[in-house]
Specification:
387 residues; alpha+beta; Immunoglobulin-like; Rossmann fold; seven-stranded mixed β-sheet; six-stranded antiparallel β-sheet; 9 helices; globular
Length: 387
């Protein structure tokens, strides 16, 4: 750009046409992509077992004045996504329309953040998903309004009170909502201790058992002692309902902050929310395709993403931080045997024999803003014998 307020830079070349460091780095990246084009094109992200519902209708509650935080829906999605993906748990974003018409059977857990407005078809989709054995987790005031803005006589609305086994008894609007965990015997609470506090925001919604309540269990209470987190069963599936917004407070909590390049921790309540989310994963039986560990308490967690193809796997290990890091990675594989691991940016390779269908290896020292890209495939017996 040779004119305007951005004419001083930001491009791949200097104003006199000479290349910048960015241009050289991009050239190397383009060469790598060209050499491995078929590999990248044929590899797709591993299938997620967790789905986050993107529901733009929720942003319309209250009309032009809206209800609550104008960024509430987006920040709630961010809060759940950032923490779960940091724990190496693949997550899909699905649209509300997928609830209405899609096949959701490949998901184990559907999370409904900030779902204040829903359609009847979407509510029916949730009902069918749970009835067929799925796990559903919802935040406060689920289906408060339908798509026309009319309030449901019972909340959760549109027939979902039966699915989640609760109905709203009262609600308060608060900036911070205290939720107390009386015991940790339920799988969703196993990473917490009795009397721990989880912090919600915006709504403190008290709920009570709906109908007979024989399948409903109170897991946590609000400050006044009323039920704040409740679990229930419906059909072959299970549900969990919290009368507040957890991830809205957590979207800027104890998570990796890309802008400051450090781990930020706001308060203990956010840490407890993270522990609750890990319990939520355990409760729904979510399987992690891989785990990773770094030496010490790393303030610069590496970002790891896994794709799969017909021959095996493609794994990206990215260092967004400003310190050199390495990690030990344990990948769950489909069968036992010997695996060939090749790092394509540095053209190095190693062979690893799986133990209990787990391939374990350690990355090299990955410099700041650096990366490693690994292909992982099983070596056939004939290739091993002919070595």
């Amino acid at each position: 750009m040779s004119s305007g307020y951005e004419s001083g830079g930001y491009g791949l070349i200097n104003l006199d046409g000479t290349p910048t460091e960015r241009a050289v780095a991009l050239g190397k990246l383009a060469k790598l992509i060209h050499e491995n084009g078929k590999l990248f094109a044929s590899s797709k992200p591993v299938k997620a077992q967790v789905a986050l519902v993107y529901n733009p209708l929720s942003q319309m509650v209250g009309g032009t004045r809206r209800v609550g935080n104008q960024d509430g829906h987006a920040n709630s999605l961010i809060g759940y996504y950032r923490y779960l993906t940091d724990q190496n748990i693949p997550v899909d974003f699905i649209h509300r329309r997928d609830l209405e018409s899609g096949n959701l059977s490949h998901y184990k857990l559907i999370i409904l953040p900030y779902a204040l407005m829903l359609t009847q078809k979407a509510a029916d989709g949730i009902k069918n998903f749970v009835a067929n054995g799925g796990y559903a987790f919802s935040e406060a005031r689920l289906a408060w309004n339908n798509e026309y803005g009319f309030t449901s006589p019972v909340i959760p609305g549109l027939g979902l009170a039966e699915v989640f086994g609760v109905r709203e008894s009262k609600v308060k609007t608060l900036e911070k909502v205290t939720i107390k965990i009386p015991d940790n015997t339920h799988p969703s609470m196993r990473h917490l201790q009795p009397d721990d506090i989880i912090q919600g925001s915006m709504f403190a919604e008290s709920v009570e058992p709906y109908g007979t309540g024989k399948n409903t269990r109170i897991l946590a209470t609000l400050e006044d002692g009323s039920a704040g987190i409740v679990t229930s069963t419906f059909g072959k599936g299970h549900t969990l309902y919290v009368g507040s917004f957890l991830a809205l407070a957590n979207s800027r909590g104890s998570l990796w902050d890309q802008s400051t390049q450090r781990l930020t921790v706001q308060d203990e309540a956010n840490k407890n929310t993270n522990q609750f989310l890990m319990g939520l994963v355990d409760w729904a039986g979510i399987e992690r395709p891989y785990t990773a560990s770094q030496s010490g308490n790393a303030d610069n967690p590496l970002v790891i993403r896994l794709h799969e193809n017909q021959e095996g796997y493609l794994m990206y290990v990215l260092n967004h931080g400003k310190t050199t890091e390495k990690a030990t990675i344990r990948l769950n594989v489909k069968s036992r045997g010997t695996y060939l691991l090749e790092e394509i940016t540095q053209k190095k390779s190693l062979r690893v024999t799986s133990q209990d269908q787990v391939v374990e290896f350690t990355t090299g020292d990955i410099a700041e803003k650096g990366a490693e890209v690994w292909t992982i495939r099983q070596v056939r017996r004939s290739a091993i014998d002919g070595k």
